[in-house]
Amino acid sequence: MNSFDNPTRKRRLAPVDVTTVQERVYQSLRLGLLKGEFLPGEQVSIRGLAGVLGTSPMPVRDAVARLIAERAFEQSGPRSLRVVPYLASDHESYIRIRMQLEGYAAERAASAPKDPKLIDTLKRHNDSIGEALEIGDFDAALAGNQAFHFELYRAAGYPQLLDVVSTLWLRTGPIVASARKDAALFDRLFHTGVHIHGDAIDAVARRDAAAARWAIKLDIRSSNLAIRRFYKRGAGETGGAAS
């Protein structure tokens, strides 16, 4: 008998931590929502997501259950899922809350001791948005936008605040991403954002908390006005299945 097969022999193998896989899957899906890689109302499937992520359906099922609880996904049928669709009244509420919370986070970041590394990182993220727009890479522009905002909010020094903000972004990120359907609007929207981000960076560099708060609130508000017009034209309607 092979000694490894001996039932009396004690094993010294480390147990597989399934929760680690589940957490990684959850964080991957969460980041995808934050970066706008899903669209409002988009149909998704456990099996399709598992294929993209290169894992079994079980950890995806657990991650999706958490995202349903966070109102990022919803059951659209007995065995079907979708990204929560755009609903104007809900979105307007999220935007009002985001303006207050994210404005406060920017204010706190600007009130912190001056950090040249933070300024350089914010500029790099903002520049990446402009560079992405120049080549028409809207996915990269969305990723740069998410990175800029969360770098700024992280500097506020309140992890709990960042958690709340990220949950709100789970519900609004796909809505902003849907503007990709109108290339001219998306380009204009994000070029405006790059300009306002520059004002926010200058405010943080000057440690002008009020100006930093104003810039971020303006950024969120101007984006929402464009998105509202976009959906009023019916351009944001989505359908079809996607993995």
Write the layout of secondary structure elements.
Blueprint: H1 18-34, E1 43-44, H2 46-53, H3 57-69, E2 73-77, E3 80-83, H4 88-111, H5 116-134, H6 138-154, H7 159-177, H8 183-206, H9 209-232
Antiparallel strand pairs: 1-3, 2-3
Helix pairs in contact: 1-3, 1-7, 2-3, 4-7, 4-8, 4-9, 5-6, 5-8, 6-7, 6-8, 8-9
Give the % helix. 55-70%
What is the subunit arrangement here? Answer: single chain
Structural class: mainly alpha
Number of helices: 9
Average the pLDDT over all residues and give the rounded result.
Answer: 89
Low-confidence stretches: 238-243
The rough form would be described as globular
The number of distinct β-strands equals 3
Protein described:
The chain is mainly α. It contains nine helices and three strands; from the N terminus they run H-E-H-H-E-E-H-H-H-H-H-H. A three-stranded antiparallel beta sheet has the order 1-3-2. The relative contact order is 0.15. The protein is globular, with a radius of gyration of 21 Å. The N and C termini lie far apart (47 Å). Helices cover 68% and strands 5% of the residues. A hairpin with a 2-residue loop joins strand 2 and strand 3.
What is the structure about, briefly put?
The protein is mainly α and 243 residues long.
Key descriptive features of the protein:
disordered C terminus; 3 strands; 3-stranded antiparallel sheet; 9 helices
